Q: What sequence folds into this?
Protein backbone atom coordinates (compact mmCIF):
# COMPACT_ATOMS: atom_id res chain seq x y z
CA UNK A 1 0.00 0.00 0.00
CA UNK A 2 2.88 2.35 0.83
CA UNK A 3 4.32 1.78 -2.65
CA UNK A 4 0.97 2.64 -4.20
CA UNK A 5 0.77 5.68 -1.95
CA UNK A 6 4.21 6.90 -3.08
CA UNK A 7 3.12 6.36 -6.67
CA UNK A 8 0.05 8.48 -5.92
CA UNK A 9 2.18 11.26 -4.46
CA UNK A 10 4.36 11.31 -7.53
CA UNK A 11 1.41 11.55 -9.84
CA UNK A 12 -1.14 13.35 -7.71
CA UNK A 13 -2.73 15.44 -10.46
CA UNK A 14 -2.78 12.54 -12.95
CA UNK A 15 -4.44 10.24 -10.36
CA UNK A 16 -7.13 12.82 -9.72
CA UNK A 17 -7.78 13.21 -13.46
CA UNK A 18 -8.05 9.46 -13.87
CA UNK A 19 -10.52 9.15 -11.00
CA UNK A 20 -12.69 12.21 -11.63
CA UNK A 21 -16.39 12.05 -12.35
CA UNK A 22 -18.14 13.82 -15.25
CA UNK A 23 -18.65 17.50 -14.54
CA UNK A 24 -16.03 17.69 -11.80
CA UNK A 25 -13.61 20.58 -12.13
CA UNK A 26 -9.98 19.52 -11.76
CA UNK A 27 -6.94 21.64 -11.00
CA UNK A 28 -4.35 22.47 -13.61
CA UNK A 29 -0.66 21.81 -12.99
CA UNK A 30 -0.26 25.42 -11.89
CA UNK A 31 -3.13 25.36 -9.38
CA UNK A 32 -2.40 26.79 -5.95
CA UNK A 33 -1.74 24.29 -3.18
CA UNK A 34 -4.40 26.02 -1.12
CA UNK A 35 -7.07 24.49 -3.34
CA UNK A 36 -6.64 20.88 -2.32
CA UNK A 37 -8.63 18.63 -4.63
CA UNK A 38 -10.27 15.47 -3.35
CA UNK A 39 -10.98 12.52 -5.69
CA UNK A 40 -14.60 11.46 -5.62
CA UNK A 41 -14.93 8.03 -3.97
CA UNK A 42 -17.46 5.35 -4.84
CA UNK A 43 -19.97 4.37 -2.16
CA UNK A 44 -18.87 0.72 -2.20
CA UNK A 45 -15.20 1.64 -1.81
CA UNK A 46 -16.03 3.90 1.13
CA UNK A 47 -18.11 1.20 2.81
CA UNK A 48 -15.39 -1.46 2.42
CA UNK A 49 -12.62 0.89 3.53
CA UNK A 50 -14.62 2.09 6.52
CA UNK A 51 -15.49 -1.44 7.63
CA UNK A 52 -11.85 -2.53 7.51
CA UNK A 53 -10.72 0.64 9.28
CA UNK A 54 -13.16 0.17 12.14
CA UNK A 55 -12.38 -3.53 12.59
CA UNK A 56 -8.60 -3.07 12.70
CA UNK A 57 -8.72 -0.05 15.00
CA UNK A 58 -11.08 -1.58 17.57
CA UNK A 59 -9.31 -4.94 17.61
CA UNK A 60 -5.95 -3.24 18.18
CA UNK A 61 -7.14 -1.50 21.36
CA UNK A 62 -9.73 -4.05 22.56
CA UNK A 63 -7.90 -4.94 25.83
CA UNK A 64 -7.51 -1.29 26.78
CA UNK A 65 -11.09 -0.52 25.77
CA UNK A 66 -12.47 -3.38 27.85
CA UNK A 67 -10.46 -2.27 30.89
CA UNK A 68 -11.62 1.33 30.52
CA UNK A 69 -15.28 0.30 30.31
CA UNK A 70 -15.03 -1.84 33.45
CA UNK A 71 -13.85 1.21 35.39
CA UNK A 72 -16.42 3.49 33.71
CA UNK A 73 -19.39 1.43 34.85
CA UNK A 74 -18.17 0.86 38.39
CA UNK A 75 -17.48 3.13 41.34
CA UNK A 76 -13.93 1.80 41.73
CA UNK A 77 -11.25 4.48 41.62
CA UNK A 78 -9.25 4.53 38.39
CA UNK A 79 -5.49 4.73 38.11
CA UNK A 80 -2.98 3.49 35.57
CA UNK A 81 -1.62 1.09 38.17
CA UNK A 82 -5.06 -0.36 38.89
CA UNK A 83 -5.78 -0.67 35.17
CA UNK A 84 -2.56 -2.60 34.66
CA UNK A 85 -3.40 -4.87 37.60
CA UNK A 86 -6.85 -5.58 36.15
CA UNK A 87 -5.37 -6.50 32.77
CA UNK A 88 -2.75 -8.71 34.42
CA UNK A 89 -5.28 -10.45 36.70
CA UNK A 90 -7.56 -11.11 33.72
CA UNK A 91 -4.64 -12.59 31.82
CA UNK A 92 -3.63 -14.87 34.72
CA UNK A 93 -7.19 -16.01 35.44
CA UNK A 94 -8.65 -16.49 31.96
CA UNK A 95 -5.70 -16.44 29.55
CA UNK A 96 -4.35 -14.06 26.92
CA UNK A 97 -7.33 -14.25 24.57
CA UNK A 98 -9.69 -13.29 27.39
CA UNK A 99 -8.40 -9.73 26.98
CA UNK A 100 -10.40 -9.70 23.73
CA UNK A 101 -13.55 -11.15 25.33
CA UNK A 102 -16.57 -9.47 23.81
CA UNK A 103 -14.65 -8.34 20.73
CA UNK A 104 -16.92 -10.37 18.45
CA UNK A 105 -19.92 -8.45 19.78
CA UNK A 106 -17.96 -5.23 19.34
CA UNK A 107 -17.21 -6.14 15.71
CA UNK A 108 -20.90 -6.70 15.02
CA UNK A 109 -21.48 -3.10 16.08
CA UNK A 110 -18.25 -1.46 14.91
CA UNK A 111 -17.99 -2.81 11.35
CA UNK A 112 -21.35 -1.49 10.07
CA UNK A 113 -21.00 1.65 12.22
CA UNK A 114 -17.56 2.50 10.82
CA UNK A 115 -18.58 1.61 7.27
CA UNK A 116 -21.64 3.90 7.45
CA UNK A 117 -19.77 6.69 9.22
CA UNK A 118 -16.88 6.89 6.76
CA UNK A 119 -19.15 6.48 3.74
CA UNK A 120 -21.57 9.11 5.07
CA UNK A 121 -18.68 11.49 5.69
CA UNK A 122 -17.51 11.18 2.09
CA UNK A 123 -21.04 11.73 0.80
CA UNK A 124 -21.66 14.69 3.11
CA UNK A 125 -18.40 16.26 1.90
CA UNK A 126 -19.64 15.99 -1.68
CA UNK A 127 -23.10 17.31 -0.73
CA UNK A 128 -21.79 20.25 1.31
CA UNK A 129 -19.11 20.95 -1.27
CA UNK A 130 -21.86 21.43 -3.85
CA UNK A 131 -23.81 23.74 -1.58
CA UNK A 132 -20.83 25.90 -0.60
CA UNK A 133 -19.21 25.86 -4.03
CA UNK A 134 -16.24 23.71 -3.04
CA UNK A 135 -17.06 20.63 -5.12
CA UNK A 136 -13.98 18.42 -5.40
CA UNK A 137 -11.94 20.60 -3.02
CA UNK A 138 -11.27 20.62 0.70
CA UNK A 139 -14.22 22.15 2.53
CA UNK A 140 -13.96 25.38 4.57
CA UNK A 141 -13.93 24.97 8.38
CA UNK A 142 -17.65 25.13 9.25
CA UNK A 143 -18.84 22.67 6.56
CA UNK A 144 -15.84 20.46 7.41
CA UNK A 145 -16.98 20.28 11.05
CA UNK A 146 -20.60 19.81 10.00
CA UNK A 147 -19.74 16.90 7.67
CA UNK A 148 -18.07 14.98 10.49
CA UNK A 149 -20.88 15.62 12.97
CA UNK A 150 -23.54 14.58 10.46
CA UNK A 151 -21.58 11.44 9.57
CA UNK A 152 -21.31 10.41 13.21
CA UNK A 153 -24.99 11.09 13.85
CA UNK A 154 -26.00 9.12 10.75
CA UNK A 155 -23.95 6.11 11.85
CA UNK A 156 -25.21 6.24 15.42
CA UNK A 157 -28.88 6.30 14.30
CA UNK A 158 -28.58 2.95 12.42
CA UNK A 159 -19.86 -5.44 27.30
CA UNK A 160 -18.56 -5.67 30.59
CA UNK A 161 -19.98 -8.68 32.47
CA UNK A 162 -18.63 -11.90 33.99
CA UNK A 163 -17.99 -14.68 31.50
CA UNK A 164 -20.64 -16.89 33.13
CA UNK A 165 -23.43 -14.35 32.51
CA UNK A 166 -23.10 -13.74 28.77
CA UNK A 167 -21.50 -16.34 26.54
CA UNK A 168 -21.93 -14.70 23.12
CA UNK A 169 -23.81 -11.94 21.37
CA UNK A 170 -26.98 -14.03 20.79
CA UNK A 171 -27.05 -14.81 24.50
CA UNK A 172 -26.58 -11.12 25.30
CA UNK A 173 -29.55 -10.00 23.20
CA UNK A 174 -31.72 -12.87 24.42
CA UNK A 175 -31.04 -12.33 28.10
CA UNK A 176 -31.39 -8.55 28.00
CA UNK A 177 -34.66 -8.75 26.03
CA UNK A 178 -36.09 -11.39 28.37
CA UNK A 179 -35.01 -9.98 31.74
CA UNK A 180 -34.84 -6.23 31.18
CA UNK A 181 -37.07 -5.54 28.17
CA UNK A 182 -36.36 -4.57 24.58
CA UNK A 183 -36.11 -0.86 25.41
CA UNK A 184 -32.98 -1.64 27.44
CA UNK A 185 -31.19 -2.39 24.17
CA UNK A 186 -31.59 1.30 23.32
CA UNK A 187 -30.79 2.67 26.77
CA UNK A 188 -28.14 5.36 26.43
CA UNK A 189 -29.12 6.20 22.84
CA UNK A 190 -29.64 9.91 23.58
CA UNK A 191 -26.25 10.44 25.26
CA UNK A 192 -24.72 8.44 22.43
CA UNK A 193 -26.09 10.90 19.87
CA UNK A 194 -25.10 13.90 21.99
CA UNK A 195 -21.60 12.49 22.42
CA UNK A 196 -21.18 11.55 18.77
CA UNK A 197 -21.75 15.09 17.51
CA UNK A 198 -18.65 16.62 19.15
CA UNK A 199 -16.60 13.42 18.87
CA UNK A 200 -17.12 12.72 15.18
CA UNK A 201 -17.24 16.40 14.27
CA UNK A 202 -13.97 17.28 16.00
CA UNK A 203 -12.21 14.07 14.91
CA UNK A 204 -13.01 14.38 11.21
CA UNK A 205 -12.50 18.15 11.30
CA UNK A 206 -9.05 17.85 12.89
CA UNK A 207 -7.90 15.08 10.56
CA UNK A 208 -9.13 16.81 7.41
CA UNK A 209 -7.68 20.15 8.55
CA UNK A 210 -4.25 18.65 9.26
CA UNK A 211 -4.22 16.97 5.85
CA UNK A 212 -5.17 20.25 4.16
CA UNK A 213 -2.50 22.23 6.02
CA UNK A 214 0.04 19.51 5.24
CA UNK A 215 -0.72 19.70 1.52
CA UNK A 216 -0.42 23.48 1.54
CA UNK A 217 2.84 23.55 3.51
CA UNK A 218 4.64 20.53 2.01
CA UNK A 219 3.44 20.70 -1.58
CA UNK A 220 2.67 16.95 -1.47
CA UNK A 221 -0.95 16.01 -2.24
CA UNK A 222 -0.75 12.90 -0.06
CA UNK A 223 0.88 12.54 3.39
CA UNK A 224 3.07 9.58 4.25
CA UNK A 225 1.55 6.75 6.32
CA UNK A 226 3.26 7.82 9.55
CA UNK A 227 1.97 11.38 9.00
CA UNK A 228 -1.58 10.06 8.62
CA UNK A 229 -1.17 8.13 11.87
CA UNK A 230 0.00 11.30 13.62
CA UNK A 231 -2.89 13.34 12.21
CA UNK A 232 -5.36 10.65 13.28
CA UNK A 233 -3.82 10.49 16.74
CA UNK A 234 -4.31 14.25 17.20
CA UNK A 235 -7.89 13.94 15.95
CA UNK A 236 -8.65 11.11 18.36
CA UNK A 237 -7.11 12.91 21.32
CA UNK A 238 -9.22 16.03 20.80
CA UNK A 239 -12.43 14.27 19.81
CA UNK A 240 -12.50 11.78 22.66
CA UNK A 241 -11.52 14.34 25.29
CA UNK A 242 -14.43 16.57 24.25
CA UNK A 243 -17.05 13.83 24.38
CA UNK A 244 -15.75 11.72 27.28
CA UNK A 245 -18.24 12.72 30.04
CA UNK A 246 -21.17 11.74 27.83
CA UNK A 247 -19.43 8.45 27.05
CA UNK A 248 -19.27 7.69 30.78
CA UNK A 249 -22.96 8.57 31.16
CA UNK A 250 -23.87 6.34 28.21
CA UNK A 251 -21.97 3.38 29.66
CA UNK A 252 -23.61 3.80 33.06
CA UNK A 253 -27.11 3.97 31.56
CA UNK A 254 -26.54 0.98 29.28
CA UNK A 255 -25.19 -1.25 32.05
CA UNK A 256 -27.58 -0.11 34.79
CA UNK A 257 -29.40 -3.44 34.88
CA UNK A 258 -26.16 -5.38 35.28
CA UNK A 259 -24.58 -3.14 37.92
CA UNK A 260 -27.75 -2.76 39.99
CA UNK A 261 -28.15 1.01 39.53
CA UNK A 262 -31.27 2.79 38.32
CA UNK A 263 -30.25 5.61 36.02
CA UNK A 264 -33.11 7.53 34.42
CA UNK A 265 -32.06 10.66 32.58
CA UNK A 266 -28.76 12.07 31.33
CA UNK A 267 -28.82 14.94 33.83
CA UNK A 268 -29.83 12.62 36.67
CA UNK A 269 -27.07 10.16 35.83
CA UNK A 270 -24.51 12.97 35.74
CA UNK A 271 -25.68 14.31 39.11
CA UNK A 272 -25.48 10.88 40.71
CA UNK A 273 -22.00 10.21 39.33
CA UNK A 274 -20.73 13.62 40.50
CA UNK A 275 -22.35 13.23 43.95
CA UNK A 276 -20.85 9.77 44.51
CA UNK A 277 -17.45 10.11 42.83
CA UNK A 278 -16.81 13.77 42.01
CA UNK A 279 -16.45 15.52 38.66
CA UNK A 280 -12.94 14.45 37.67
CA UNK A 281 -12.95 10.98 39.24
CA UNK A 282 -16.47 10.29 38.01
CA UNK A 283 -17.13 11.92 34.64
CA UNK A 284 -13.49 11.67 33.51
CA UNK A 285 -12.70 8.27 34.99
CA UNK A 286 -10.39 6.39 32.64
CA UNK A 287 -9.67 9.42 30.46
CA UNK A 288 -5.92 8.94 30.83
CA UNK A 289 -6.30 5.45 29.34
CA UNK A 290 -8.36 6.98 26.55
CA UNK A 291 -5.44 9.30 25.83
CA UNK A 292 -3.43 6.15 25.15
CA UNK A 293 -5.94 4.03 23.28
CA UNK A 294 -7.89 6.83 21.57
CA UNK A 295 -5.06 8.25 19.45
CA UNK A 296 -3.93 4.71 18.55
CA UNK A 297 -7.42 3.63 17.48
CA UNK A 298 -8.32 6.78 15.57
CA UNK A 299 -4.89 6.96 13.96
CA UNK A 300 -5.19 3.37 12.73
CA UNK A 301 -8.78 3.96 11.64
CA UNK A 302 -8.18 7.07 9.54
CA UNK A 303 -4.93 5.74 8.08
CA UNK A 304 -6.46 2.38 7.15
CA UNK A 305 -9.43 4.10 5.52
CA UNK A 306 -7.27 6.42 3.42
CA UNK A 307 -4.77 3.77 2.34
CA UNK A 308 -7.52 1.28 1.49
CA UNK A 309 -9.24 3.95 -0.60
CA UNK A 310 -5.98 4.63 -2.44
CA UNK A 311 -5.43 0.90 -3.00
CA UNK A 312 -8.95 0.35 -4.34
CA UNK A 313 -8.63 3.34 -6.70
CA UNK A 314 -5.33 1.99 -8.01
CA UNK A 315 -6.86 -1.44 -8.55
CA UNK A 316 -9.78 0.15 -10.40
CA UNK A 317 -7.41 2.06 -12.65
CA UNK A 318 -5.49 -1.15 -13.34
CA UNK A 319 -8.75 -2.90 -14.25
CA UNK A 320 -8.88 -5.37 -11.34
CA UNK A 321 -12.19 -4.12 -9.97
CA UNK A 322 -15.31 -2.55 -11.42
CA UNK A 323 -16.93 0.67 -10.26
A:
Amino acid sequence: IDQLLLLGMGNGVQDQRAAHTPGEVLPSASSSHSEVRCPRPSVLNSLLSGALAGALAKTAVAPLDRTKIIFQVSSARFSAKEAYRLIYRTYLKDGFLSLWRGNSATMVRVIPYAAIQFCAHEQYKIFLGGIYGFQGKALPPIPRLLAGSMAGTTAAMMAVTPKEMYGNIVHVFGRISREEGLKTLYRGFTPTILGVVPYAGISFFTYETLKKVHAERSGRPQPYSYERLAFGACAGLLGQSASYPLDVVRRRMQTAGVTGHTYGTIAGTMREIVAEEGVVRGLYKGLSMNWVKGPIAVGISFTTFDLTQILLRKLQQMGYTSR
Notes: The longest helix spans residues 287-317. Residues 1-35, 159-167 have pLDDT under 50 and may be disordered. The CA atoms of residues 17 and 26 lie 7 Å apart. The two ends are 20 Å apart (CA to CA).
